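> forwarded from #structure-qc
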């Protein structure tokens, strides 16, 4: 159905970024009018009563694993899109570590098309940096960039681009079209193949091979120097240590084009959760001690870390429910990202809702080069938005998730802030906390 044929939507009485209450009339995929509270007549519009809700530009996730093609038993583009819409996202970047890997233009276009067919969120493929994520030869970066998928973010995520020469070439290459390399920063020699948790007192006690924070920090330090040398842009995926924050702070002060993301889990969960050997908490990079968590929160609040990205990493039970050392790395995160940020950063008074819009929408959209997303909610802007109940609290139930996977580290935890509605180009994908059947839109 063409977008022009959809019914207008009137969002009544939302608090824009938590700052001022207004009505928003959404028509033909854009914000047609912004008016004083209760000033706009509904006419034939579908009315969303947003009294008490905060309106944010639709959330943008720089780091999502959708698992299709190859691991549809863990997630598909459709089930991951549902989780994204339920979490308030209107765009997600789909990581390239699928099977086959997204390392060609055709593979990227297939992911794009699967996203369009699902129709719940803009699925923007990330391209691999190297063929098959092998870290040796560059993938078809230019062809992916020029394809219908317009790939701008490249990453071997799951693996580090460990070879400095390869990283340098990738940075030089993507510079030509304003691309960015998102690095999974982890020196493979320092981290070691068997490592599965933070290296520290606890890993010693548990008898688990740990990996040290410095394995991340040396790669970030190297990559900011390569970004300076090439004049290109580097993005640091899932920052997990205070040392990385120090490097980023220095690099930004030099004017080096580096951006960075932190995951919700690294903002709240700590390494001591591993004491019960529950593989739900096994993730790469690992959960760290309190000092790191505090440094990450401070860096997000002061802008040293630019964005929050979920690293939603669904895994099927038969990959996750193993002895700790054998289980897969990763945890789901799309449906809980906003509540975790609200709980850790807003409820604690460290960030405002305008800051949340910056770290979960505006800045990630700018980093990824997605012009239709992250815009301020003013007349003429694309009608991509999220409505949040800022005070609602809820105990997370992994079985209430719409993701296909259940590796949910938030199960049983009470979080504040609930996504009530998501609107993609003027069409609700989530209403009253329930997914909207695409056929009914
Ligand atoms: N984060 C994880 O623990 N796992 C990710 C890979 C990654 O993000 O490095 C995955 O693909 O499962
Ligand atoms: Zn990674
Ligand atoms: Zn990842």
């Amino acid at each position: 159905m063409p977008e022009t044929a959809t019914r207008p939507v009137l969002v009544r009485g939302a608090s824009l970024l938590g700052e001022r209450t207004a009505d928003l009339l959404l028509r033909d995929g854009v914000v047609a009018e912004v008016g004083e509270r209760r000033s706009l007549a509904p006419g034939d519009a579908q009315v969303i009563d947003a009294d008490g809700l905060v309106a944010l530009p639709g959330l943008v996730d720089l780091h999502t694993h959708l698992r299709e093609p190859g691991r549809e038993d863990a997630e598909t583009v459709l089930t991951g899109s549902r989780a994204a819409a339920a979490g308030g996202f209107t765009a997600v970047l789909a990581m390239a570590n699928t099977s086959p890997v997204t390392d060609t233009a055709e593979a990227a276009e297939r992911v794009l098309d699967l996203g369009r067919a699902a129709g719940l969120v803009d699925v923007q493929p990330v391209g691999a940096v190297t063929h098959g994520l092998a870290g040796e030869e560059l993938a078809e970066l230019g062809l992916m960039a020029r394809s219908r998928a317009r790939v701008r973010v490249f990453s071997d995520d799951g693996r580090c681009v460990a070879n400095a020469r390869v990283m340098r070439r990738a940075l030089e290459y993507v510079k030509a079209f304003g691309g960015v390399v998102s690095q999974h920063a982890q020196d493979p020699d320092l981290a070691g193949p068997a490592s599965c948790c933070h290296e520290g007192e606890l890993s010693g006690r548990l008898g688990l091979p740990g990996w040290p924070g410095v394995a991340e920090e040396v790669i970030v330090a190297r990559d900011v120097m390569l970004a300076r040398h090439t004049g290109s842009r580097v993005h640091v995926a899932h920052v997990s240590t205070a040392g990385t924050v120090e490097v980023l702070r220095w690099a930004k002060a030099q004017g080096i084009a580096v951006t960075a993301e932190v995951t919700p889990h690294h903002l709240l969960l700590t390494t001591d959760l591993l004491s019960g050997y529950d593989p739900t908490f096994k993730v790469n990079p690992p959960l760290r001690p309190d000092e790191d968590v505090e440094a990450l929160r401070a860096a997000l609040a002061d802008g040293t870390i630019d964005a929050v990205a979920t690293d939603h990493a669904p895994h099927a039970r038969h990959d996750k429910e193993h002895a700790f050392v054998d289980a897969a790395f990763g945890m789901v995160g799309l449906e809980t990202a906003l509540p975790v940020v609200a709980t850790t950063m807003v409820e604690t008074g460290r960030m405002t809702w305008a800051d949340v819009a910056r770290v979960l929408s505006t800045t990630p959209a700018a980093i990824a080069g997605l012009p239709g997303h992250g815009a301020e909610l003013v007349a003429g802007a694309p009608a991509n938005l999220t409505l949040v109940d800022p005070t609602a609290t809820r105990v997370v139930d992994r079985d209430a998730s719409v993701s296909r996977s259940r590796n949910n580290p938030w199960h049983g935890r009470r979080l504040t802030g609930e996504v009530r509605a998501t609107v993609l180009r003027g069409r609700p994908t989530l209403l009253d906390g329930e997914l909207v059947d695409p056929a009914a839109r």
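QC bot note: The pocket of zinc ion (ligand 3) is lined by residues 63, 65, 95, 157, 311, 313 (CB under 6 Å). The chain has two domains: 3-55+380-440, 57-368.
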